[in-house]
Amino acid sequence: MKMSKMFMPTLREVPADAEITSHQLMMRAGMIRKMASGVYNQLPMGIRVFKKIENIVREELEKKGCQEILCSGLIPSELWKESGRWDVMGAEMMRVKDRNDRDFCLGPTHEEVFTDLIRQEITSYKQLPLNLYQIQVKYRDERRPRFGVMRTRTFTMKDAYSFDIDEAGLDKSYQDMYDAYTNIFARCGLDNSPVQADTGAIGGSVSAEFMVKSEVGEDEIVFCSGCDYAANMEKAVSVNTSLDKEEMKELTEIHTPNVHTIEDLEKFFNLPANRFAKTLVYEVDGKTVVVVVRGDREVNETKVANAIGGAVEFELAREEVVRAVTKAGIGFAGPIGVEADYVFIDNEVAEQNNLVIGANKDEYHIQNANYGRDFEGTVGDFRNVTEGDKCTKCGSELEIARGVEVGHIFKLGTKYSETMGANYIDKDGKSKPIVMGCYGIGIERTAAAIIEQHHDENGIIWPLSIAPYHVVVVPVNIKKAEQMEAAEKIYNELQSMGVEVLLDDRDERVGVKFKDSELVGIPMRITVGKDITDGKVEFKLRDAQDKELISLDEIKSKIEAEFVKNNVKLG
Amino acid sequence: MKMSKMFMPTLREVPADAEITSHQLMMRAGMIRKMASGVYNQLPMGIRVFKKIENIVREELEKKGCQEILCSGLIPSELWKESGRWDVMGAEMMRVKDRNDRDFCLGPTHEEVFTDLIRQEITSYKQLPLNLYQIQVKYRDERRPRFGVMRTRTFTMKDAYSFDIDEAGLDKSYQDMYDAYTNIFARCGLDNSPVQADTGAIGGSVSAEFMVKSEVGEDEIVFCSGCDYAANMEKAVSVNTSLDKEEMKELTEIHTPNVHTIEDLEKFFNLPANRFAKTLVYEVDGKTVVVVVRGDREVNETKVANAIGGAVEFELAREEVVRAVTKAGIGFAGPIGVEADYVFIDNEVAEQNNLVIGANKDEYHIQNANYGRDFEGTVGDFRNVTEGDKCTKCGSELEIARGVEVGHIFKLGTKYSETMGANYIDKDGKSKPIVMGCYGIGIERTAAAIIEQHHDENGIIWPLSIAPYHVVVVPVNIKKAEQMEAAEKIYNELQSMGVEVLLDDRDERVGVKFKDSELVGIPMRITVGKDITDGKVEFKLRDAQDKELISLDEIKSKIEAEFVKNNVKLG
What we know:
Chains A, B: It holds the Pfam family HGTP_anticodon. Chains A, B: Keywords: Aminoacyl-tRNA synthetase, ATP-binding, Cytoplasm, Ligase, Nucleotide-binding, Protein biosynthesis. The structure is a homodimer. Helices cover 26% and strands 29% of the residues of chain A. By secondary structure, the first copy, chain A, is α+β, with helices and mostly antiparallel strands. In chain A, strands 3, 7, 8, 9, 10, 11, 12, 21 and 24 form a 9-stranded mixed β-sheet that branches. In chain A, strands 16-14-15-17-20 form a 5-stranded mixed β-sheet. The two termini of chain A are 16 Å apart. At the A-B interface, β1, β2, α2, β3 and β4 of A face β1, β2, α2, β3 and β4 of B.
């Protein structure tokens, strides 16, 4: 492509609303433009990168025997009502009525559609296993779209669904996808880690997220410093750090005016935060939920939601609800005598004696509260991991990092096949539910994560595997015939080799051209300047400082060597 | 691909709701499955064909310098309000509100979005011309989805938009697209004709439809038997066939009880239909519109709508409206004394003397009515062409055929750039509106049109250029090791040549395998049977009766020759 003809509107300035590097650079490199909050259009430099990622995804999935299909993004509500998710999905799912007032949604995910397709076509174990995928635009009306294509309302997703006769088959399908994802993200040049994750609204038993560590990541990931344990914060567990048991003491009510927070309590009682239990009241889908964790801990809402079988709306209770549940204002809630639909007690609170708790009475706290003797509830793990907690697998310290989720794989089991009647006849003649898995990759978000890991102060540094173009040929002065002719000749020769090449034939200063090619991140640059009279050009890699004067007949081997080095197929 | 692993649910029976051949064969060949009325999912055999068409489109457009982008299908209403089309589009445009109650539509077409993108990035004549395209899912809530993927509510469309500094630039861009389309449809194996078309809701001055002649086509196309004139029925014109002028006679009112239709009138008056004028009353967007054409003619509603500057709802008037306009019941309307917002008189009616018309009085007609003397109205071409009419270009007879519209190209001019302020600064320093064109191809519909033109009683006969697979290798008996081994070897060798090949390794009778490969339309079949002991296999083309016994070392050259013959690149 000749850059004089190309639609590549680069920006010198950082757009005001772009907070993170990948968003800034995608805008500046002319890859994307915003049309509405969380809604982007993809320009030539963008779509070329996204398609490279898509093709890597296709290749790796097809190696595992996955087959591509394409389902409609407009989905009749009946399927979602059958699975029970029409009401569960909340405002994130965009809904639309057709001219006959029939309800549809814009697919945020496609479990129902694939299950419906399969139940109509699969009857026998002989037709299984099967793994079908699509690369398709998804719609999710995020409450707070942000960070460019990291969190948008429409985005391209590869979603795959596996169909097996039993759990052993699912284990193999899941492992195949795990391996395919590992290869995909490696080929995209991403340093990434699969972590255990919660299955959330998709459902199922086991799931893993592929996380790219990044300061701008929206998710917190917990890693063990001593073993391979890794999980996202929603799912992560740690060893309880309950204090040594001591003799139970007598309950004592203490007047604590103007003492509301754990910090206030620490000062008032002159005790560390782990001597207190804090009691939080939530409203969850119309029910009241009380959760008690130690004063130095945070409630893990996902674990709480799972304990009550899932939740759509999960909010801290309004003051009047807190008062109804605890008979006191906010700040004085405690587990003794609360009247809620659910009461959950974190393990550490249950294990520890003589805690200070709210008295459920304005301006009072209670000392020496003990689970079992003074209050009851469902005991379990309802807290977030804290940096320095111990790993439940090996006892080493846990670390917390931020990450960007680029892929997510789930063992769904028979959740959808049972509710929607997707069965097959097994060898023994019996009808059994198909065992399913599902597997997603966010295409644009993967590109953003790559930029987060591959950039410098001048712009993007694309890995060769997904660069929009491999090489840019820059004549220093397009008015000098010998430079322009040599540049065109190199351009044509590289094209015929199958190299994707840009010719910067714009009438601009060479400094502007260099800046643009660095901004958009083209891996190799060939500069045709005055040395062309000696048959020499300058060769420079985007990710290196060195420039090298090489002769014209070295160009081909130089470039081929880069393809070999980066393990990218040429042509 | 091994067929034992492939998700290719073929059907023996013709599905009950599939009326036309392409719909039947797409269903039977396992290419598509219906999810809701006008909403289809694409299975592996389908998506492979659709992607082949997409890639031909890409190649031919990029030869013309078009650049691919991808815009969001979810479009904020503000853009459509700016262009004035938010209200014009009617129920066909699906609308959706986001969680903040903001209006969006699901893009039925993208003029506004592309214009918006361009007005933000283009400032100077130096950045033009530009031609951008996308291949994307469109949403149109058709009143009557039918004929499989011929008329659906979601479909894949390639839409391109050109941006030029002036009309001469647009002429070139339009011609480039005209040529690209001609190449695209030729490469798809389609016998097609570009015809003049009405510009409709898209707007603009000139447009052409690429029509595939087919009995099942939803459109009527008018062709000249003597010259290259071709237009769709909405747009087609013919020479007026007014009768010779005669002396104007005196108006005479005749009692015509129970005479309502033109047929009734022909009998009653013993005159041919062309001696009558028929007067139709319409309600168009709340206005009353009267149209008068000769008794042997039909009203062309598109021409009428264009005469009043466009129409959304265009319906024959209800009886009470007819009575308000004509003072008589249906069947006795005439042009004398009607009171309507618009009165249109077809040229033939204006040119001809002494017509019989309705009297605007129940059970009465009037003889010897003459335009000018007895009634007035806007005179113009408001009728459909009839088979046998004369061509306005050359005088030869016009013929009428049915066709499927696979592409449509428009000269938009400055319709969108003026209303939306997409301007550029010209060489002379003046701000001018960008001159636009737009160009669409329906991907799935093109595939359906190909099937309509390429099939026999056994199934689809894909042109090599868009076949889902090029070759199927069929071992007659998979239990015979020598057949299966030879088949696998051929399969592997062809794959390494870049041939897309199926191995029918299913444990089925060979007749079943042949039936399937003919149904899905694979162009070449290699059957490995008992002759393999002599090193021979059977080679058969899908579109020929002959089978040929060839030796193993002839396979490669046989197949390569087909690629050359069909002008398809291998690998």
